[in-house]
User: What shape does this take?
Amino acid sequence: MKTKNFFIWVMMILAVAVISCDKDEDEESCDSEDLAADFNCPVDVDAIATFCTDGVNNSYYTYAGTDYMCTGVDASTCDEALNEIGAALLEAGCGAKKSGSVDAAKIKLSTMAENLLEEVRTKSIYE
Assistant: This one.
């Protein structure tokens, strides 16, 4: 009887340890930015770009159902993705109000990415 009780307690302790140590490393965080004003988009065009990252392996932007991958987990690795989103917005019928609007939108999206990455990194330190 003592062996049976001991075995049950050991199994319960192991189960608690496994559950408490099991963290979802691939948990993503996302943030969105509306670029309609920067690109002078018609009202029927959805100009929302979303940046998602797990803070460890993957980061990407999503616009109009398409993922634009970054080459790392840093906003500076997303230049190609930002260029592709700008081209997709122009293709969708948006037109930059002034020549600096495209650059302003890229800065907006990069800042959003940096803020989210910092939040994810800070969150992972305290968990």
About this structure: Residues 27-126 form one domain.
